[in-house]
Amino acid sequence: MASNNHFLLMFAVAVLSFLPRTSLSIPFVVFHGISDKCNNKGISQFTSLLSDWSGAQGHCIEIGNGALDSWTMPFFEQTAIACEKVKSMSELSGGYNIVGLSQGNLVGRGVIELCDGGPPVRNFVSLAGPHAGIAAIPLCKSAWFCILVDSLIELAVYSNYVQEHLAPTNYIKIPTDLDSYENGCKFLPVLNNEFHKNSTYKKRFSSLENLVLIKFENDVVLVPKETSWFGYFPDGSWDPILPAQETTLYTEDWIGLKTLDEAGKVKFVNVSGSHLEVSYGEMKDYILPYLLENSIALPRLSKSSHASAWSSHDGKKLKLYASD
Ligand SMILES: *[C@@H]1O[C@H](CO)[C@@H](O)[C@H](O)[C@H]1NC(C)=O
Ligand SMILES: *[C@@H]1O[C@H](CO)[C@@H](O)[C@H](O)[C@H]1NC(C)=O
User: Fold this and answer.
1) What digits encode the pLDDT tens for the residues 223-254?
2) Residue whose CA is closest, atom 9 of ligand 2?
3) Among this protein's residues, is 272 annotated catalytic?
4) DSSP H or E segment with residue 282
């Protein structure tokens, strides 16, 4: 029996290695996080590893000049650029998958929901996405600086000027200042169908085949880290942090998260790392399966065979967080 299985595995490997690589899987695109850019080492390694393992073409899509624009370009603009780019890539026209990293998840979701005439998105794999908002500016390193910045920003976070020049403020949601958020925040309320509902956005988001939400257990960049799973502070208060299923976004199904969840299409994954610190093994377990069309079982088979080169680097970690 064992040799039979072995034979089948060898046969599968042989067959797969004769197929043209691109026929195995549809392409995927990566949207990177804040301060990063596509040709930074972490991002290019991440993209090419996933591409090598899946046999799928992987493209990191740059918005503007990358690092600086990720801080300063308003999100509607970032999303519009991403939308034009995916439409211009003929290789995506038959459908593709999106892998979002941190802030890049909102670009990804913008493409899914807002991009008229864009190619169809099948799976969306989201690592550390600030989906339900954040309540603090990311990347604050030293306490005194953060407090200073925080208080400056808090005064003006929802002013037009700040909204148009500091991209992360487009998804800051201060739970005790929701009136200002509703009137001033320029992107997240639209993306989440919070105040004005657009059924097209919901229809598009609900059409995903899989939504994989990866939360990093030791994430201190996203406040709260539960936002990666669409969890958030309750309206008007700083505690307790609500799980996604208890938020109004979910219960009233503003964007189709509940629809997707009830259809078994949402995978809530937590991993042990800090913000965007992911191991090869975790990439293979939680990202790769969604990049393989027809769920080709090769990685699973290989994983169970001991001592293969495949698994020898599983503990190796990538840090996809530019500032470190
Ligand atoms: C909803 O979004 C679609 C697609 O972008 C747009 O064509 C439509 O005008 C929007 N509807 C409303 C009521 O804003
Ligand atoms: C995932 O979350 C659960 C519940 O909070 C926790 O017990 C578990 O250790 C976490 N798993 C990982 C891999 O971090």
Assistant:
1) 999 999 999 999 999 889 999 999 999 999 99
2) 272
3) no
4) helix 280-282
